[in-house]
Amino acid sequence: MSMAAARSVPAGRTVKLSLDRDEIIKRGLMVVIALYLLVSLAAPLYVMLSKSFSTYGFNLAGFEFQVGDESGNWSAPQTAAALNESTGAVAADKLASRSDGRLAATSFFPDFNFRSPIHYRIRGTSDEASWLVGQTLHRGTEWMELDSNSFRRVMLRPDRTVGIENYKNYFSTPSLVRSIQNSFTIAIISTVITVGAAFGFAYALNRSKMRFKGFFRLVALVPILVPSLLPGIALIYLFGNQGLLKDLLMGTSIYGPLGIVIGSVFFTFPHALIIISTALAISDQRHYEAAKSLRASKWRTFWTVTIPGARYGLISAAFVVFTLVITDFGLPKVIGGQYNVLAVDIYKQVIGQQNFEMGAVVSVVLLIPALAAFIVDRLVQKKQVSLLSARSVPYEPKPSPRFDFLCLMWCSVVAVFILGIIAICQLAAMVKFWPYDMTPSLRNFAFHRMDGGGWTAYRNSIQLGLLTAVIGTAIVFIGAYVVEKIEGFRTGRALFQFLAMLPMAVPGMVLGLAYIFFFNDPANPLNPIYGTMAILVLCTITHFYTVGHLTALTALKQIDKEFEPVAASLKQPFYKLFGRVTVPICLPAILDISIYLFVNAMTTVSAVVFLYSTSTALASVAVLNMDDAGDVAPAAAMGMMIFYTNIAARLVHMYLSRALTSRTQAWRVR
What is the pTM of this model? Predict the structure, then answer.
């Protein structure tokens, strides 16, 4: 056929591959988990955002009243606005309200007497006007007649309008705006110190021949096992008003920015270390040999080879630490004193003042830097290129007595800092009355005598951890599996990936407040789970979803894509391949996801502090409540119970990993 003839052939229809049963099931599973993320994350955030733009006020023109005399004659209808104009009962600046605001109808009748035989009528001038008689809500334009005794229970309800008034009020309040500056100041200082300290620690582990590396690695991960409130309690015992070492501060108070920074360095250190250590561990020996052959000094080699090679790890660690510090609630609450930060402002607005709309505004303000840091971090990671190739030679440090000694000293200083924080809390939990009676005692572990939930709170935390680990691991791994193994469907997979990555950018306080707005609405069919263990599990899984998702994806990408075609050619359904091949191969990652979810469920405070009830109090929240009540030593004891539990969970995880890996991963051993 000639070229001209070929060009004249009309184009046919685009061939589309029909979906087989396995693909339909996979896409169905992806849709189900995507709906889970929409309900547990996207929808609550949307409701919270809309709440931040909601303002409430009493529209007095929306209500009309009539007064009947003893003979049954009724006065001409008058609006509440007209009555207020004549009586001046409610000032104009008092008409602004909150969503749960109430205004007594009797305010407009100065001579009201509930024993009077006079009757009253009330109605709305529009269908939107609403009022309460006792706890019963009424609305509409029909007259409602009430005797005097019933009329005294009438409360007008405010109208909702949409606007930016809440944001105007927020940014016109100096104390609230100052919290933004305080949060950024603390986050930046803590980030610089933490990243610097973690880089030195990681450099010592990867570039020296010092001894006890295994010990130092274990010690560096200890802060992950405790709630962020615990370093605050330890610092109070060390440098507080009755602290052992308070004279070392020379009059400077530990309550405020100093305490927040020190505590932030403690609990963010392992996060920065893991990232930076990974970046330093993949260096190419040939780069250093080339620098040596060019007679470059060690200092110049450090700045031209080491730092550029680890720059993406350093940037990523900086953004992670910044986000953790600026969104943390527990530590500033315990040791912040009068130094307000954004996360604590949310708590004060919601719990202290019941101002949910302003709490939503602060949440949006807090969400912006966290989301920006997350986006920049993701963009930086996309630019990262592989530093190792097939020809690369892994870096092997050489003995250097002086350098190895300096590395050992630095790691020892950091280890003393970390273990010292834990040791102080342990000591405080085991004595009668710090610092006056240091007799050993277990009285601080009698949680049933303290406010905060007692031993029931501890058991609830274990239940939350187990449910989160089991249910969360299943949801996360199946979600990662279907999005990785589905053929085509790029748009759907991209949307799913966006939803899966979004939780990492949402602070726990913001998510918890969003859950109040969304699940506490009686019109929501999921309202029955509010105040139960179910909502705590849902919130915790969602809050920590992203890290588990990325872990599962990393493991799944290591599996050869030829398994699926081979299974299809043998007419084997995908779920058999999933159960017999995929799960055994990915078992180490599955166990890692489960222990990650369990530990975070035990230590989380910010995500659940708004959601627990008297029957679902948690150990981490009990630490906060006992500290608020002045029971600092019992709070330290409960924090140590969380620590013990997480150590035990880690040991169980280690045993299961070895036992199951020996059965399912024998092919890895050469």
Answer: 0.84
